């Protein structure tokens, strides 16, 4: 008794006897079915644990019963020509990239062993081929003439700079470099050799001293004209700042005729109308040359301004002052020729500023036979200008007068009462 569904295995084999046919509904002992919904699952082969796990595909009509060949898309096929060409190309590219990376890594790691990195630079020009007007050309020209000066004294060793002014061994430096010494100095030349020198003479008020060394064939400096300088002209300061020999610093002329009054306590007072520069100048530069763009000496580096208190070590802040070379050369010639220097005077005593601050300097006294008296100046006159340079402090008149050589004629603008007048004054040397 079935419900109309006759199951057979593929090939028409009936279900084995002795067990219910797969998919037949179970019956209970009373002949009734145990599940009223069994007929709903008759068409579901997954409910029958005896259902075969085979899929029967009907043969195509006229196919002779032979199954249609099936091709696996994942199965490896015969390589094509494009693939044969791409494989070695990709392999070569990968090998090249790997080789380049390894080569770079080995080059970097082996740089300490002498491997050169980068392109070979062009050969720099030889020093002798540098243009004479370049900073290097100027330094090359002047450095052989610059020296370091060391002087022993009771207080220790004083060190400064200097420069050769004659082939037979005359060296110019500052008076404050050799003052307090024994009259002997050690001069160290640009090539590192040294010689013992003797102080020929010194002028404390102009801060110039001359040393003579027993050596010939030296290269002297070339002198320039300090009166031809203009504010903004390039300059080099050369010397031995802080014991660093052969040091070159660059700057410009910051100001001209900057009147200076300098000196140590208890020592002489020095007056000069200085060349101000912003070239770096420090202790040890004293006595060294200030040169122009052509390598000609235009000044003698002498003093600096600083922001430190008295007794502390001063350093460069871009305010350095040099004695004009026209004045220093004249003093040097006097010292070499006579052992001492002449001092230029106007023949009057300056007592104070004018009626209003910055309105000139007043003459307290005028020497009867001096240059000022010969030009008609009198005590009480207020000097307003000297060769066009305004007078604001007594130091201005003294420093500017000493800038000129004895016998120079200067124009003086002065005020007497409420009247302004001009006079030509022929400066003279003092009686010392």
TrEMBL record:
Domain of life from the UniProt record: Bacteria
GO molecular function, one term: serine-type endopeptidase activity
Region entry Disordered, spans: 1-43, 55-77
Keyword S-adenosyl-L-methionine: no
InterPro entries assigned: Chloro_Bact_Ser_Proteases, PDZ, PDZ_sf, Peptidase_S1_PA, Peptidase_S1C
Pfam families linked: PDZ_2, Trypsin_2
Start and end residues of each PDZ domain: 352-416
Listed transmembrane segments: 84-107
GO biological process, one term: proteolysis
Keywords, alphabetical: Hydrolase, Membrane, Protease, Transmembrane, Transmembrane helix
PANTHER family hit by this protein: PEPTIDASE S12, PROTEASE DO-LIKE 8, CHLOROPLASTIC
Protein name, per record: Peptidase S1
Record lineage: Bacteria, Bacillati, Actinomycetota, Actinomycetes, Micromonosporales
């Amino acid at each position: 008794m079935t419900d109309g569904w006759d199951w057979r295995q593929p090939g028409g084999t009936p279900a084995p006897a002795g067990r219910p046919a797969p998919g037949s509904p179970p019956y209970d002992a009373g002949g009734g079915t145990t599940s009223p919904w069994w007929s709903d699952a008759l068409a579901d082969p997954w409910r029958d644990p005896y259902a075969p796990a085979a899929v029967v595909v009907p043969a195509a009509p006229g196919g002779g019963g032979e199954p249609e060949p099936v091709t696996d898309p994942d199965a490896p096929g015969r390589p094509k020509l494009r693939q044969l060409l791409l494989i070695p190309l990709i392999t070569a590219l990968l090998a090249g990239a790997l080789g380049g990376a390894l080569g770079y890594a080995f080059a970097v790691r082996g740089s300490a062993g002498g491997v050169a990195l980068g392109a070979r630079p062009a050969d720099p020009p030889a020093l002798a081929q540098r243009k004479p007007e370049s900073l290097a050309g100027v330094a090359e020209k002047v450095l052989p003439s610059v020296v370091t000066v060391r002087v022993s004294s009771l207080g220790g060793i004083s060190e400064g700079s200097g420069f050769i002014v004659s082939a037979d061994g005359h060296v110019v430096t500052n008076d404050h470099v050799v003052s307090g010494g024994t009259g002997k100095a050690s001069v160290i030349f640009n090539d590192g050799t040294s010689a013992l020198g003797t102080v020929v003479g010194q002028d404390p008020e102009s801060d110039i001293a001359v040393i003579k060394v027993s050596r010939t064939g030296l290269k002297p400096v070339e002198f320039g004209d300090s009166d031809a300088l203009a504010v903004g002209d390039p300059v080099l300061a050369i010397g031995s700042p802080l014991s660093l020999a052969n040091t070159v610093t660059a700057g410009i002329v910051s100001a001209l005729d900057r009147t200076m009054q300098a000196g140590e306590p208890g020592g002489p007072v020095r007056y000069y109308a200085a060349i101000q520069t912003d070239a770096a100048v420090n202790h040890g530069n004293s006595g060294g040359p200030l040169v122009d763009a052509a390598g000609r000496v235009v000044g003698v580096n002498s003093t600096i301004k600083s922001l430190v208190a008295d007794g502390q070590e001063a350093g460069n802040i871009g305010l350095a002052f040099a004695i004009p070379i026209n004045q220093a050369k004249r003093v040097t010639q006097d010292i070499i020729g006579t052992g001492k220097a002449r001092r230029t005077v106007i023949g009057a005593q300056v007592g104070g500023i004018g009626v209003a601050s910055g309105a000139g300097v007043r003459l307290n006294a005028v020497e009867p036979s001096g240059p000022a008296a010969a030009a008609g100046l009198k005590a009480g006159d207020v000097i307003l200008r000297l060769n066009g340079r305004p007078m604001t402090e007594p130091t201005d008149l003294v420093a500017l007068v000493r800038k000129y050589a004895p016998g120079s004629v200067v124009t003086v603008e002065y005020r007497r009462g409420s009247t302004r007048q001009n006079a030509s004054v022929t400066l003279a040397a003092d009686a010392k």
